[in-house]
Amino acid sequence: MNTMNPEINLSKEAPLEEPERQYYYIEKAKKYVKEQMEKLGRQLTFCVVTFGCQMNARDSEKLTGVLRQIGYTEESNEEKADFVIYNTCTVRENANMRVYGRLGQLNRIKRRKPYMMIALCGCMMQEPEVVEKLKKSYRFVDIIFGTHNIYKFAELIATRFESERMVIDIWKDTDKIVENLPSERKFPFKSGVNIMFGCNNFCSYCIVPYVRGRERSRDKEAIIAEIKRLVADGVVEVMLLGQNVNSYGKTLEEPISFAELLKEVEKIEGLERIRFMTSHPKDLSDELIEVMKDSKKICKHLHLPVQSGSSRILEKMNRRYTKEQYLELVRKIREAVPDISLTTDIIVGFPGETEEDFLETMDIVEKVRYDSAFTFIYSKRTGTPAAVMEEQVPQEIVKDRFDRLLKRVQEISSEVCAVHEGTTQTVLVESVNDHDETLLTGRLSNNLLVHFPGDAGLIGSFADVRLDECKGFYYLGTMV
Ligand code: 5AD
Ligand code: SF4
């Protein structure tokens, strides 16, 4: 975590440069928080609620870092917290509905606790209709900001303390990446690391390119320096994050490939495991497959969203590969890394999907035999090309297909998982089991979990565990 500059002088104007400007506002907000704590005669607490993907989870760690620095302490129950932040997702419609529902709840609490602060950020805030609705019907919200200016969180908090009004700051897009801001980690031993932001793919169903903007890669030096700092601070596993990591570096002044970046990350001493997400099949290079094959640190897991098994639908989705190309890619990967675990995302009910198209999806699932698959019902997102396509598939049909797919995906997944039964594998011990305190939970290189008896002192270290029994999508084991 970055430390604050003790020389920040609040009687001077805010610096214009970043990140100095934010450190100035952190000091300022700290003063307001302290005043309020003195008035109330107690500590103030915060709760960050994260919806959606790993990118949002990482962003939430950044929000947490700022809140801690300005003097708030963490409270896991949002109903008790003095500052509640929803870091939202808008990939599917139901994510939005959940936010509105929970906001209603918060409003009731805030009526009793007027000094309470509510902030909203993340992908949903990048949709103009959402902000309009909030301005009209959710006046009790204090701060609204988007995905491009999350680094300004401290400044927005200070601004809210100084004004009586809702603070709204949404940018349409940005080419800026601000480095060296405070950040917290949920786990001391593993961390997400952003390597790029945004997406240029415009899959026809997807809202991400509109709410996360154009692709921007971080400089290699900044990424390596961050990972080295993390390792010095006890991290042994990193997850390199981007909407499409396979196109990392293409837009940098000195272009570099994702495979080359991985080779550099591999060299970092003390780092034991490397994961990354998400890969787009169309950009997954032979060079990357080679690097994965030769690596000692890259985990044996690849998340490779297929979305559909029908080449006709894939074209309408603007995915830029066919079923055959995807299967060929899977063949090449498995040839190079035979024991790799493959996972995927699948959408059911894309506009125009016929029973025949759906059977192609069932077929690709049969052929690839995924270790696990996230299955989604197509959700119409206003502003995307697919939203105005004709032939939206009736709900009952989609539901029926979804159930059939899910059943098969789960059957295959438990069969695939059972293959490792009886083997001994190295796991990173992550936590004490939620349901049974005598058990620890460890993660295999292939991302599966195993629960085994052990002492909590092992958390954060590696252990060899025999996988005694497969329970469908996890194992019970014994340390050897
Ligand atoms: N409807 C349903 N699922 C979607 N996804 C993205 N957009 C939509 C949508 N409009 C899914 C994709 C993607 C995952 C993160 O979310 O499968 O890979
Ligand atoms: Fe959305 Fe496609 Fe970009 Fe993934 S690659 S974020 S599905 S547009």
TrEMBL record:
Cross-referenced SMART domains: Elp3 (SM00729)
Residues binding [4Fe-4S] cluster 2, per UniProt: 199, 203, 206
Domain TRAM positions: 418-480
Cofactor: [4Fe-4S] cluster
Assembly notes: Monomer.
Protein name: tRNA-2-methylthio-N(6)-dimethylallyladenosine synthase
This protein's UniProt keywords: 4Fe-4S, Cytoplasm, Iron, Iron-sulfur, Metal-binding, S-adenosyl-L-methionine, Transferase, tRNA processing
Catalyzed reactions: N(6)-dimethylallyladenosine(37) in tRNA + (sulfur carrier)-SH + AH2 + 2 S-adenosyl-L-methionine = 2-methylsulfanyl-N(6)-dimethylallyladenosine(37) in tRNA + (sulfur carrier)-H + 5'-deoxyadenosine + L-methionine + A + S-adenosyl-L-homocysteine + 2 H(+)
Binding site for [4Fe-4S] cluster 1: 53, 89, 123
Superkingdom of this protein's organism: Bacteria
Function: Catalyzes the methylthiolation of N6-(dimethylallyl)adenosine (i(6)A), leading to the formation of 2-methylthio-N6-(dimethylallyl)adenosine (ms(2)i(6)A) at position 37 in tRNAs that read codons beginning with uridine.
Bound cofactor: record note: Binds 2 [4Fe-4S] clusters. One cluster is coordinated with 3 cysteines and an exchangeable S-adenosyl-L-methionine.
Keyword Transcription: no
Localization per Swiss-Prot or TrEMBL: Cytoplasm
Listed GO MF terms: tRNA-2-methylthio-N(6)-dimethylallyladenosine(37) synthase activity
Species this protein is from: Dorea acetigenes
Keyword tRNA-binding: no
